[in-house]
Amino acid sequence: MFNSRNLLSGKRKYLFGFILFSFICVIYAAFSSEDSDDFDFARREVLLRKIGHEILLQSGDRTSRVLPVKKIAKNEYLISFENKITFQPDSLVNTTQRLLAKDPFASDYVVNVLNCTNSSVAYGYAISKNKQDDIVSCRGRKQPVACYMINIKFKPTGINTVKNGYLLGGLSFLAFVGFIFFRSVKPKKTLPESQHTDMLTLGSVLFDAKNRKLIKNENTIELTGTETRLLLIFALSPNETIERTRLQKEIWEDEGVIVGRSLDMFISKLRKKLEFDPNIKIVVIRGKGYKLEISA
């Protein structure tokens, strides 16, 4: 019985280690994905600065600066310039398409050129992964020199939703595997190996643990499984006090069930089945537990 318990304990430790390792892998994969996302978005900001740089060159400005790109929302950015510029819509559309093609998450976006003074839209267009959905107008009309800002808003990619879905799915799968395994290795209510080979003698009574019987002369009393396990603990330590906590643990708690008065109920039933031999009785040791007393 102890070897069996040690084996089950070993399996549980192995499974716990496996689940913990898998859990760490899932968490690591999630955060690695987040780090990868951060890198991709940082790379996007570099591309946006590149767009601003090329617009300045197209405007004939080779000296003034592209101001720091501002992220004004989760998927929205603002490119601004040190000086006033002019731009050709055709060139602006071609430049953004060419550079943002290098961004794997920028398949759909809207570009608006805003006036600095009142944020009104001087020019705008929409680019889609499906070219038929592109919205581009007013090409070939060079815009006047003024203070402009370029607002680019990207369609949400759903990266976080997918990532969280994988994370929750992975954790749910690990929980399911753990539940199935623990159910499969749940210790059965077994008796010590000695029960299968020995007939224990209790005074004038034979205790057949394997077949769950008490035998005296030709009289036989049937025992339940729980009564058999309980009596076996007493029979292996006759005339010794067995602590109540030990009985609860070995009979019920090891099975995942905590009992209160159940122990007293089974002790009472067992006493009645032992009444036919006055030399055997289970007595209460107050404050400690019980003892199987066998008189000579």
Please, could you describe this protein's structure?
With 296 residues, the chain is of the alpha+beta class. Helix content is 43%, strand content 20%. Strands 1-2-5-3-4 form a five-stranded antiparallel sheet, with helices on one face. A four-stranded antiparallel sheet has the order 6-7-8-9, with no helix packed on it. β7 and β8 form a beta hairpin. The longest helix is centred in the N-terminal third of the chain and has 57 residues. It starts with a helix and ends with a strand.
Number of DSSP strands?
A: 12
- Percentage of residues in helical conformation: 40-55%
Portion in strands: 15-25%
Intertermini distance: 30 Å
Strand order in the largest sheet? 1-2-5-3-4
**Oligomer description:** single chain
Alpha carbon gyration radius: 40 Å
The largest sheet, given as strand count, sense and whether it forms a barrel, is: 5 strands, antiparallel
Order of helices and strands: HEEHEEEHEEEEHEHHEE
The number of distinct helices, counting runs of at least 4 residues, comes to 6
Mean pLDDT: 78
Shape: rod-shaped
Sequence stretches where pLDDT stays below 50 over 5 or more residues:
1-5, 188-197
SS content category: alpha+beta
